[in-house]
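Aim 2, interim progress. The first record below pairs a target sequence with its structure tokens.
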Amino acid sequence: MKFDRRSDVRLYLEGSIVLYKSRPAMVESVGRECKGGFIIKIYLLRGKGSLITTRTTDPLLSLDSVRLGYYNDGTRAIYLKRNPIRYYKRGVNSNNVSTGYSINAVINAVKGNYPSFNEALKNVSDGSILSVAFSRNFAVDSKHLYFKGRVVGKNLGKDVKLLRKLTFLNRELQEAKNVCV
């Protein structure tokens, strides 16, 4: 993405989560123009949390929107989605998502780190965890199966069953359960 003015880069990127080397990073600040791009400081949100100085034209920097969906935050699964608002920010930030978020939980969602389907069922069966996401789109609690924040089926204990009118989700559910169709 080409930027013409520093003020545009600041408006568009500061405070947003983007990807650097396929790892989530928060844009901390924007500096002067240099070699066809603007210098930016990003803070890697995983590992040692290094502060890196790079340019907006760096091929290792992805300003594309990160994939959102469910994330596991303590004892519950929360569906995180972008709000359909006109807001000039790139990436994920507190102003363009539907719920507040924990950085570590969002990092796991962005990277696709979820427990297996069987682990999710086991975690909710004893009642100590209210709900668990096992993919970006699916989560379970002790009674229900959820797809993108909506009830789409029942938790039968050792498996789940889609509501009759929603069987078109079966293929996606099977993929989320890591079972070949």
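The second target in this work package is listed in the same format:
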Amino acid sequence: MTPSLVMYAWPVTLALLSYTVITVWVWARQSPRAKINWLGSIGIFLIVFAILIYGTLHRAGENWQPQAYSYLVNYIVLAFLGLQFSLSGFLIYRASIGARLVTSSVLVWAMYFSLSASFITLMSVTGQWL
């Protein structure tokens, strides 16, 4: 039986799902009227799509040889991750006290998807697939 990426990733996904359920439950019981910036929290997922689209545009050439500028693409993907991390911190800072846990759980999901997208993008750009 060969191990797959799903078998390695499911404990992380289960932990994130548990964190999200707990934070939404605590938020609903303590302060359901606390203002959450849903547009900003969900809008941060656009960075995930930007990373994937950028990797598609700059994929490795024929015979899976990386492009001459592939090292620059790596830095740009890291800049996308840094931008997302900075915006996430700002959104958590701007959230009201009662909504910070829920906001952070949504943004942790966004970061989890961004790390996965950047992993796929960097494999696509360098032509080195697992």
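Residues 100-126 form the longest helix (27 residues). This observation will shape the mutagenesis plan for the next reporting period.
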